[in-house]
Design brief:
alpha+beta; 21% strand; 31 strands; binds zinc ion; Neutral Protease, domain 2; Immunoglobulin-like; binds phenylalanine
């Protein structure tokens, strides 16, 4: 099957590089339209390769001159790079190329954003800067000279020289080209310092455009906390004299871990009380940590090839989630992560884009920066840690750093350190990396003579290219509660390895109530026949916060499914249990706010589909509206009490405690608004001194259909702040009534502040449409057409972002014939577009099949 598409790349085809790089010297003569890049690279033949074919990647470069060992050469140029005759011995390659940063709208390679130069090289952007073996298993020591008039000239590593119109940087750590970075602009910095535990003095800077200085303090604190945490928890110290972070407005992704020079989407680093919500602050703290943690998991130890992406991403996501759990509330973090995992990764795993955590083939690697690689990749590491225990995990990870520092590694290397450190055989566990799809875990139980037995059956449905699945190792955390609500068996880990397996608990006085998959101990779908009484019991008594939350969530979800499928009324069992839970002031307000969250429209559509129904987006929306209204009435007395009780009196701080209080108060506001039509929200809007309160009020007003005035006021107040205006665009679309969503989106694309060039703005409008499922899937199909129109328009400018956003269509086979036909038409229209990028072609073809 290797000829499906000529450009498909297979893991099984990996071969080592023919030549290795020892040293790289780069000189940049910056110019917006004609930047010169002069490279001098020392190569040597790779003893591990039989090939002596010299090939350098290069795309969109104008080659000015090339030399081998000082002699001019004329390499053979192709669309993908060049080949050239070279000695079978170490040699020096020199080249001069010209590139056009200003014309670079794809935001890969060297480009300009608001007058500043910046780079994005992961995964394969360096080849747009100069000719180079642009693959992660080629690691070199870089020295970079930047010539330009900008006040600030930055690259990786330590500054070695600086003068009028130039700066020179040297990075002593060998690295792959994807970690290269350069920034030049009239930037200002927010400086600080950190002393590592062995006494290295590190200069820290966050570089921003003038005007954004006031939004750096929080990110800086997060950076210092991350540095201290990685020393304490993983024994990892920083290894350069300076750590620079730069905020860039035009960026395809969240942030990038370039060695010593992290580049951030400004939305993922800039924060202030007035402009950022509590959720923004928490996310920024996590992303700062994530990129910083990459310094060891990703940079010091990198990936052999892009199929191993989860080696750095899964591990780094796992590490940043541990960090957030330590800095804030561990249960709240776990619950939020599972909500996101189900919304994004389960959705991916159950549709046409399903792929293993370590994919086996791709056309465009940019299409594989997915929830599966990142979030499921992190879950797999969490399971590994559960299976071997905390001490063995620490030992194995130490061994990983010791054995592989400076190397480009594979998942095999990663698993081997666990095998060597623990003596365990992980060959079956490895299936988590190779089998796609979310396992279903069916449970039944019985009780006889004091013995309680849990019977498990696992099954993973077929996914594209994988019809048959073998049983996986599933760590199942179980606790048992007695009839009075006491825990009679504390959390135990059951290690399931067979397709069917039973586990017994002896010496019980009465039939217990099981609490299964505590802390969401494995990324599976648990299926168990149970009733409302048991769920209400678990919501009231479970000692495991995750399962306590899950019990309430299941109650809400199944009640909603009954409403949607059978036209049932809102479920009293849910309403009563939710009221009891919300009233319990011994519970963390953040937990209560999460427990008052209802399943999303998309999660309900997914559940309906899993249970053999065809989801009707309008019916889902109606059911949620009905339930929200019934709940508001049920909470008529409690909601105002919670609202008043959880107003924060202290000066604003985006910490876990205050955020939790505000989240609960705002959940109460949502209920109040259902009954008062927006009066309270209006008062909150007027008095808010922070974006969390202002935005919650704004959302409620929009939701209640009372937002017109606020739309104008919000815009007038914030029109100079791009990040806040992104929220303004997004909320109007997310809260539009289903029948208006496509119209509202189209109208907002005509707003003078809309631009197709800025990925954040594009996503805040077109991405928002997909975040309003009843609107996106509204019966006329306008939503599909609007999104397709704009993806077609974006593709030639920025294929990476266009391709990613195609995933809005990935669930199309869930829906009815009419909708499927309309979506198929749009997918075909996109595919038929002349010169469609390989990125978007790959995504749409996979979705369409
Ligand atoms: N490696 C980045 C991260 O996870 C993500 C990224 C990928 C950014 C590709 C840009 C381009 O932190
Ligand atoms: Zn990452």
């Amino acid at each position: 099957m290797k000829d499906a598409s000529p450009q498909t790349i297979y893991l099984s085809d990996y071969t080592p590089p023919a030549f290795l790089v020892e040293e790289v010297h780069l000189t940049f003569r910056l110019n917006p339209k004609k930047t010169r890049v002069i490279s001098k690279i020392r190569f040597k033949p790779n003893p591990a390769s039989k090939s002596r074919d010299f090939f350098l990647h290069g795309e969109g470069l104008r080659l000015v001159s090339a030399r081998v060992d000082g002699q001019a050469v004329e390499p053979e140029l192709t669309d993908e790079g060049l080949t050239c005759a070279v000695p079978d011995a170490p040699f020096v390659w020199e080249a001069e190329v010209e590139i056009d940063p200003q014309g670079n709208t794809a935001l890969e390679g060297l480009y300009m954003s608001n007058g500043m130069y910046c780079t994005q090289c992961e995964a394969e952007g360096f080849r747009k800067i100069t000719y180079y073996p642009d693959r992660p298993d080629v690691m070199g020591v870089f020295t970079v000279r930047i010539e330009g008039d900008e006040k600030v000239l930055l690259s990786n590593g330590n500054l070695v020289a600086k003068g009028d119109g130039f700066a020179e940087w040297h990075d002593p750590w060998p690295k792959p080209a994807y970690l290269f970075a350069l920034v030049a602009g009239d930037l200002v910095n927010h400086p600080d310092r950190f002393t590592t535990r062995s006494g290295r003095e590190v200069e820290l800077n966050i570089w921003v455009r003038p005007g954004d200085e006031g939004k750096c303090a929080f990110g800086m604190e997060a950076l210092k906390k991350s540095m201290a945490w990685d020393e304490k928890t993983y024994g990892r110290e920083y290894d350069l004299d300076v750590f620079n972070v730069v905020a860039v407005d035009d960026f395809n992704m969240g942030a990038m871990e370039n060695k010593g020079l992290n580049i951030f989407n400004s939305s993922c680093v800039l924060a202030s009380q007035e402009t950022s919500t509590d959720a923004n602050f928490e996310r920024i703290e996590a992303i700062i940590a994530h990129e910083y943690f990459h310094n060891w998991t990703g940079n010091r130890i990198t990936c052999r090839d892009w199929f191993q992406l989860c080696l750095k991403e899964g591990l780094t996501v796992f590490r940043d989630s541990e960090f957030t759990a330590d800095m804030r509330s561990a249960p709240v973090k776990r619950i939020s992560d599972v909500i996101a995992l189900r919304a994004r990764q389960f959705r991916e795993d159950n549709g046409p884009l399903a792929h293993p955590v370590r994919p086996e083939s791709f056309v465009e690697i940019n299409n594989f920066y997915t929830a599966t690689v990142y979030e499921k990749g992190a879950e797999v590491i969490g399971m590994l840690k559960r299976l071997v225990g905390d001490a063995a995990y620490a030992k194995a990870v130490d061994l990983y750093f010791e054995r592989h520092d400076g190397q480009a590694c594979t998942i095999e290397d990663w698993l081997k350190v666990f095998e060597d450190a623990t003596g365990r055989d992980l060959s079956q566990f490895k299936r988590w990396y190779s089998q796609a799809g979310t396992p279903r875990l069916r449970v039944t139980d019985d009780f006889k003579d004091g013995t309680y037995t849990l019977h498990f059956e696992q099954e993973t449905p077929p996914t594209p290219g994988q019809d048959e699945k073998a049983p996986q190792v599933i760590p199942i955390a179980v606790g048992l509660l007695g009839p009075n609500g006491d825990e009679v068996v504390e959390t135990r880990f059951l290690e399931m390895t067979e397709a069917k397996q039973s586990f017994t608990f002896e010496g019980l006085g009465a039939r217990p109530v099981p609490s299964i998959l505590r802390d969401f101990s494995a990324p599976v779908i648990l299926e168990r026949e149970t009733d409302n009484a048991e769920r209400a019991f678990l919501l009231a008594h479970d000692t495991d916060p995750f399962n306590k939350w899950e019990a309430g969530r299941d109650l809400a979800r199944d009640g909603l499914i009954e409403m949607i499928v059978n036209g049932a009324a809102p479920d009293d069992a849910y309403l009563d249990a939710a009221l009891t839970m919300a009233r319990d002031d011994t519970l963390d307000p953040a937990f209560r706010a999460l427990a008052l969250g209802l399943p999303s429209q998309d999660e309900l559509a997914q559940t309906l589909h899993e249970r053999g129904h065809t989801p009707d987006p309008q019916a889902i929306w109606d059911a949620l509206e009905t339930l929200r209204h019934a709940r508001a009435e049920h909470f008529q007395d409690l909601a105002p009490r919670l609202y008043a009780q959880y107003q924060v009196a202290k000066p604003y701080a985006p910490d876990a405690e205050q955020s939790g209080a505000r989240a609960l108060a705002n959940a109460a506001l949502g209920m109040i608004t259902r009954l008062d039509g927006g009066a309270q929200a209006g008062r909150q809007y007027d008095s808010a001194d922070n974006m969390t309160q202002q935005l919650a009020a704004f959302s409620n007003l929009l939701q209640a259909g009372q937002g017109q005035d606020a739309v104008t006021r919000f815009y007038d107040q914030w029109k100079e702040d791009r990040l806040v205006i992104d929220k303004w665009f997004m909320l109007q679309i997310v809260h539009a009534a289903p029948e208006d969503a496509a119209k509202t989106t189209e109208a907002l694309t005509q707003h003078p502040d809309f631009t197709i060039r800025n990925p954040n703005r594009f996503r805040s409008v077109l991405g928002a449409l997909a975040m309003n499922p009843a609107g996106f899937h509204h019966a006329g199909g306008e939503g599909y057409r609007v999104l397709a129109d704009w993806l077609i328009a974006l593709d030639p400018l920025n294929p990476q972002t266009a391709a990613r956003m195609c995933s809005a269509f990935e669930t199309w086979k869930r829906y009815d014939r009419e909708r499927q036909a309309m979506i198929a038409d749009q997918l075909d229209r996109i595919l038929a577009t002349k010169d469609l990028s390989p990125d978007t072609t790959e995504m749409v073809s996979r979705i369409r099949n």
